[in-house]
Amino acid sequence: MKTVCILDTETSGLDPSKDRLLEVGLVLYSLEHVAVIQAASLLVSQPTEDLDPASVDVHGIPFALLNSGLKTESVTKAVRQFASKADAFVAHHSDFDAQWLDATTRDALPWICTCNDLTWPKKGNSKSLTSVALAHGVGVVDAHRALSDCLTIARILTRVSEMGHDLATFLAPGLRPKCRVVSLAGFDDKDLVKANGFGWDPKGKVWWRKMALEDVASLPFQTRMARETEVLQ
């Protein structure tokens, strides 16, 4: 790997089948030169009449601002242009971000999840991006807007390089083939399951995540492989 496309999304909710993509942040980052090459913040034009006003507290995007957004086709084109210059997508909770892209764009590159695929040099209080940043001495001046989170990931990677790590080697574990794993832990253990990177699928009513097969045995609870008939997003 020489270059990665750091990507983050802001959405009106958690379910792509009923909620909407509001913003995509993109940063093209050189692993060779440890530097940002290009960055973009792309608001998506969306009808706002049925959006939940409470979601603004999460993503920080005033609904009136969406009137100035780009059409979905233009956003897709921009993401593909960034991807054409990169060797992998990098995202925090990549399974969540990937599901908001169309299949062609989503499958253009392998995905590396900075939340679940990597072992960071310093351990934070949680797996949140803010916690990872602060553990590495990277200040967080703005959170949750898509480009801000992308730039935070870029600054963390720069700090990891300053600590003496080769970034291509550091990110390589995220490229291992992954399988879909479903948790068999009981309801009382949901916090433990979440702490290990599993997300809730409301349709299948299961906790699941993608992960390298060789890492499954290290989980502190029982799991099973997802069935071929299960559509987990």
Structure description:
The protein is of the alpha+beta class and 233 residues long. It is 26% helix and 23% strand. The chain is built from eight helices and nine strands. It has helices at 56-59, 72-83, 94-98, 103-106, 129-135, 146-162, 167-171, 190-195, and strands at residues 3-11, 21-30, 35-43, 88-91, 111-113, 178-183, 199-201, 206-212, 223-225. It has a five-stranded mixed beta sheet with strand order 3-2-1-4-5, with helices on both faces. A hairpin with a 4-residue loop joins strand 2 and strand 3 (35-43). Helix 5 runs parallel beside helix 6 (146-162). The two termini are 27 Å apart.
What is this entry, summarized?
This protein is of the alpha+beta class. It has helices at 56-59, 72-83, 94-98, 103-106, 129-135, 146-162, 167-171, 190-195, and strands spanning 3-11, 21-30, 35-43, 88-91, 111-113, 178-183, 199-201, 206-212, 223-225. The mean pLDDT is 93.
The oligomeric state is single chain
Give the mean pLDDT.
Answer: 93
How far apart lie the N and C ends?
27 Å
Largest sheet: 5 strands, mixed
Strand order of the largest sheet: 3-2-1-4-5
Structural class computed from helices and strand pairing: alpha+beta
Shape category: globular
Radius of gyration: 18 Å
Q: Helical proportion?
A: 25-40%
| Topology order in helix (H) and strand (E) letters | EEEHHEHHEHHHEHEEE
Number of helices: 8
Number of strands: 9
- What fraction of residues sit in β-strands? 15-25%
Uncertain residue ranges: none
Comma- or semicolon-separated keywords:
single chain; 233 residues; 9 strands; four-stranded antiparallel beta sheet; alpha+beta; five-stranded mixed beta sheet
